[in-house]
């Protein structure tokens, strides 16, 4: 096996949402060297990636790892979890809806043992983000989406929100903030904002189309990563200071497990030598499941849009909750992929509302089925298995609320009929069955290497993002989320990246100024 010629101060596994931030921030110091190991190609000169409105064309394509879901007895067993195989990660693949997590989201993390991750501590990181976060541009505000916002306000009495990031909210309807450049519909992804301007830094090395398949250790100290290039060549990339695992909520625990870090019994059953017994790896699998209700429109919808789902609605049904407990994306397309499996037909022209569970109570699990790193892990989200059926009841309420919005003017004037579930589906039982069978994901897996207090045996990382019981290795991506933010999580992941970079710099400074340091 050929050894890599050079070692680096830091090796970042995953050039995605958080990894791009960390690599960019660390290489601001010209004396610090960083290698980024990214399984996919560059996004530079890729209009199919860089053009935000083309996001749906990436699903299931060559830049999608495309993970299946295990059988879901109470949900949809056909859900495919899109994970991006390209520089920028899922920020090069998603709709770039940009919500800063609510203060209650961060405080919930601190309450779960993530000391220093409370709302007051996290607030400064949002202001540091390099992404161009702006409201949907006026010219991208489709007339039917404008009428959706008006109807939601009229039907439900929720406030109109102009700029969801201006202040915390409990409910409201409005156009989203997006991380994009309205003048040309170009993404302001993590790679565009954090890597593209700095690719000429001599201390930044991108190893593209390179797959990290095993972490290496000297005792309990991480020393580097075994990788395989696109041509099959294998090599070892050594880290002088630290390894940063930023491969996302699926591939981070996958890499740990194949490196012998995880539940001992599971690893031994597959014949994987145990490096470090850590029972929480792969547990606490979170997602934002949602269902869909579709209407036919009386003709084509005007073409202008940023990404065909530019507006949304938040509702707080329970005044005791800290934030919204029901969300809707409004799609300017008939989103019928899952209903068609049940026999529904896609209308020629239509729109959709997607009731979404901001704070789902079901918890799943990711696990290996083979010791072969090429075999995809199993993702068992255990959708709608929470004891009180809170998640299922939320979707039923969501369909009923969506119907109220659709019946209100001016949106009602566009609509000719409800396609699915259809106006005859009215009972709680019927609505629940439809909502769960047609449920899909908005691609927000999280929580599989959750952060917690240093004495929490189920936590994978401590508040400093270091893997418990190991040194020289940290995790920074959505896998560390202890709980799911009520809003789309991308900005939260970027902020995790910013905080991780700051933690690394502080550690390096402390080491170089300590007696015996390498200053």
UniProtKB/TrEMBL annotation:
FAD binds at residue 86. Keywords: FAD, Flavoprotein. InterPro entries: FAD/NAD-bd_sf (IPR036188), GMC_OxRdtase (IPR012132), GMC_OxRdtase_N (IPR000172), GMC_OxRtase_C (IPR007867). The keyword Transmembrane does not apply. Residues 248-262 form the Glucose-methanol-choline oxidoreductase N-terminal domain. GO terms for molecular function: flavin adenine dinucleotide binding; oxidoreductase activity, acting on CH-OH group of donors. Its cofactor is FAD. Pfam families: GMC_oxred_C (PF05199), GMC_oxred_N (PF00732). SUPFAM superfamilies: FAD-linked reductases, C-terminal domain, FAD/NAD(P)-binding domain. Belongs to the GMC oxidoreductase family. This is Oxidoreductase. It comes from Streptomyces niveus (Streptomyces spheroides).
